[in-house]
Every structure is written in structure tokens, then in C-alpha cells.
């Protein structure tokens, strides 16, 4: 749904991302919200001090809102007159509101399976087949986001990001013949597997307690290590190379990697991951933006505005 300046809206369904009770210059309380419809995020205000609103409307819930869209400093802001929580939304309603990727889930499942089929090493192929058959992976990998806010932050984003990283690695392998294909592709498939535990499901899509305390790099390395331990005679050199790629894929210590990339495959995975994440982050910033000119609002992550 596309909203325009001075457009009235009535009973449109939104996902509530944030809600905060604030006080204005005249010492009157109001609610400041961030709501979303699909990929669009809208800054919103409720000029009402009803405590029931703060009790019922919480981050992660869905709600019907009515009001009018206004121009506020060059961006669209929703002035909400009424808001009503949706307590038991249907799956159809969820699908119509929540942010989703551009690739069908079934297509991504097939693509992951096709990628695994290109692996020659029997130990690595068995490892990948076993991991992608795990109940937790089957349940969450194709539905969760790859990030809470910055990149691929929508349903299916984790699988989409993973496939992008693999495709970049496959391109690298054609250019740099000395990259070990099986290790690099397997590491690309597994580099963010820990995010199935790091992020909660939609509509919340927030960091879990486990995710905050351990992080997806540690969680992913642990999952892969446990899966390897169940494969008889899995070579240690393959184990170390794969887990090293996972541990080092953020590239630097200050970005959260416990070790720096120290193999060709690790530096390839890091660069493919960075390219997929940053290009999508720019695209997502453009898609989310509700500004009225040709540039996004200032992006604090990348410290710049982005041309639409």
C-alpha cells in the first residue's frame, strides 16, 4: 500500500516495530511509533495519553490504524487517530503485512539443494545434507531474516543472503582458479547458519537472549562442529578450514570475528558476505524510505544519505 501526503487512511493493518511514550514541549504525553507495511517503515504519532494503548500495543504486534499521512520535515509521518491491536492475525494477513524477500521459499529450497549437489567431496556433501535436514534448520532457515535492521531484514532474508554469497563465491572460483570450491561454497552455505538461533521469528525479528549472549558466529561454529562430530572419519583439516571460514567471515576483530581470515577461502567468503550485505542494505534503505525527495534520510550505519 502506497500512502501519500494528506491522505486519510482507515483500518489499515500494520506491524508495530517500536512504541515509546513521550512528553511534548507543552508537557503533554503522546506515543511515538515506528510501524511498517511490507518493507516500508513509517514514523508515527498518537496524540493521545490513553494508558491502555501502551499496555496493548507492543513491539512485534499487529494493529489496525486510522488517521492521516502528513509531511514532516520532508518525510511522510502518520498521525494516528485510533489504533486497535489484532490479537489473532490470520496467516494470510501476516503474509500481506510482514516484510518479505523477492524469492519464493520453494525456489530457495531447490536452489540450496542444487548448490549442495555441486559439491564433490563426500564428507562435505554429507555434512551439508545433514545440516540442511536438521529440524531447526528446515523450520527456520527459509523464513527468518539475515539481520534485525540493516540487511536482508525480512522473511526469507537469511536464505536469500546465503544464496547470494554462494553465487558470488562461485563467480570468484571462475576468476580465481586456486580457490578450493568445495570448502568455499560449503562455508558460504554455513557462514550465517547460527542466525536461526540469533534472531526471533517475525513479526518480532529481534535478537534472542541466546543470540545476544553468544552471537551467530559462535552459534554457527558450534552447530557445524556438532554435525561434523557425527560423521565418521571426517578429516580434521576440512573441519578446521570450514569452521575457520565461519569464525572469520566478519573480516576483523572489531566487527565481531574472533579470528582474522587466514585462508584464501576465508577471505573470499568474507568479501562475498560483505558485498551481499552492503548492496542489499543500500537497496533496503531505499525501499524503506518514506522521504519525499530523491534521497533517503541520513543512514547512521553508512554515515550518508543514499540516492534513490
From TrEMBL:
Gene Ontology MF annotations: hydrolase activity
The keyword ATP-binding appears for this protein: no
GO biological process, one term: rRNA 3'-end processing
Keywords: Hydrolase
Residues annotated as domain HD: 158-278
PROSITE patterns on file: HD (PS51831)
InterPro entries: HD/PDEase_dom (IPR003607), HD_domain (IPR006674), HDIG_dom (IPR006675), YhaM_exoribonuc/phosphodiest (IPR050798)
Gene3D superfamilies: Hypothetical protein af1432
Pfam family, one: HD
PANTHER family, per database record: 3'-5' EXORIBONUCLEASE YHAM (PTHR37294:SF1)
Protein name stated in the entry: CMP-binding factor
